[in-house]
Queue: 3 jobs
Job 1
Amino acid sequence: DVKVTQSSRYLVKRTGEKVFLECVQDMDHENMFWYRQDPGLGLRLIYFSYDVKMKEKGDIPEGYSVSREKKERFSLILESASTNQTSMYLCASRTLDDYNSPLHFGNGTRLTVT
Amino acid sequence: AQSVTQLDSHVSVSEGTPVLLRCNYSSSYSPSLFWYVQHPNKGLQLLLKYTSAATLVKGINGFEAEFKKSETSFHLTKPSAHMSDAAEYFCVVTPDTGRRALTFGSGTRLQVQP
């Protein structure tokens, strides 16, 4: 079974702090994604990557950056956390070997910025 | 480009009655389609997937979905709802290339009344 692991389940940070959310997958997947989920807004794509060192902006990249130095790890960075970034963050991965392959999700990180 | 519309944001059923969650899609190619379920404070779990092998797809927990190309629909059904089915459900369509992200519907919250 594919395992996508997000390093923290709950995180509390202060406004202005630099925040790192880490995601690791164990199945050699090419595609990795970061979403945020807020009540009434569904899942919104922040960034995704289709290869090491490659990244693409999603629908709401402002205030975020990402890093993919190794294939198995995709990090989301909040350069200067703000209260409007309080949210549930979900990481996912997918292989590109099979066009029909689904996304595999981590359990999420609930971030609170105070 | 592709799009997904989940026609109901909330559905409420009584335990033991049938469930119908509706999903329409549009696409310029032949996509794969998925249904995911999310229980409170959890990540998303794959319920089932359509990959053009069969139009009626069976998933976990007694759910199934029928792909209807003429109606561009992929509705999720279950003959008899259980209290544990209360969750949020997402319909998802694959892109035409691995360099694009999957497209999510806005979600349907299923309530199951005792």
Note: Chain B touches chain A at residues 32, 34, 36, 41-46, 49, 51-52, 90, 92, 94, 98-99, 101-102, 104-107 (CB under 8 Å).
Job 2
Amino acid sequence: GESVGLHLPTLSVQEGDNSIINCAYSNSASDYFIWYKQESGKGPQFIIDIRSNMDKRQGQRVTVLLNKTVKHLSLQIAATQPGDSAVYFCAGRSGYALNFGKGTSLLVTP
Amino acid sequence: DAMVIQNPRYQVTQFGKPVTLSCSQTLNHNVMYWYQQKSSQAPKLLFHYYDKDFNNEADTPDNFQSRRPNTSFCFLDIRSPGLGDAAMYLCATSRVAYNEQFFGPGTRLTVL
């Protein structure tokens, strides 16, 4: 039979621009959130995390913002580079489980 | 370097033929996880071990089993693979007191 593939949301940015990737979560009990980067054919790679008692955390070229009121998480990447092209997942922790969001494909164009 | 290793990276099996995927870690982490990731989808947790304690997710099919003979190794057994089980299988580890999960490179399973 015919198979229909799922298409990830795609964000296309020019090299050097800033990128903002958004994520909505539903589980109010999540106390910890992580952003992962996944390149094609590889496992997810940790980027940055944030605890639920914080609203902002900065890393090298990346910033995560957490708005618990509207259950929203965002990842900001400064001066986006071609090597940043990948799928980005947010994940919320509930107990031992990490519940992953659907993912966003980031495409960096020269 | 401490890491999570998965073997093989690519596995081809026939419909209904049992298959075992392997994961090992040099991180000495207490918790090991198995995730299933289908194309263009997020990883989905199948089960995890906290030391020797096995924890199955409620919606994981009985067709999927796991073994953890020691701290370093964890196996995923698929007893009768179906076409719908074709996916990337990811192993991850974490230290109980820490939150970050470290992922292996995954094994891509093809079912013919």
Note: The longest strand of chain B covers residues 87-94.
Job 3
Amino acid sequence: SQKIEQNSEALNIQEGKTATLTCNYTNYSPAYLQWYRQDPGRGPVFLLLIRENEKEKRKERLKVTFDTTLKQSLFHITASQPADSATYLCAPYMGRRALTFGSGTRLQVQP
Amino acid sequence: DAGITQSPRHKVTETGTPVTLRCHQTENHRYMYWYRQDPGHGLRLIHYSYGVKDTDKGEVSDGYSVSRSKTEDFLLTLESATSSQTSVYFCAITGQGGELFFGEGSRLTVL
């Protein structure tokens, strides 16, 4: 069966460092993959989309990579800030009727 | 702001009672979705709609029904609520690039 794995343990980093979050998936080759941010008590907010023919995508301090051989996407936040603290969800398009989401990784940036 | 409104935002009900959650959008989008979010499970698709009166099941559709009689409204009904349906429910619509825009969520507690 298709699975999406994100590190369930919270990631704690110091302000100014680069945060790297991992998303692994199995048993499928998604045409694209999306990343979302979710704050407590709020709905997820779209951040970035990367397609299978793109190795890397950037938006301001955010960078996403997509390795279709490893079946993995990495999400980087450079020069992290306490305001970046949130849960980050990856969502590969698994060919079904809608996006399938990982359970998310909580990022805590310490000042 | 994607113009999505969910109601009610919070509801407490008793086992066996019917519950209807409403999702209203002002963007005239064709695709609408209902997800539930539970600790450790992430977002799971309940039902989705690809047009007025056109709906289909997601991965966790048992115990839920939906209706879409107008483009702007997508209703999720629990015919007879159970404690396992205690969750946070999110409605979403698809943007032009394939990204999802989510509502603020409806927190349902079934006692």
Note: Chain A has a mean pLDDT of 92.
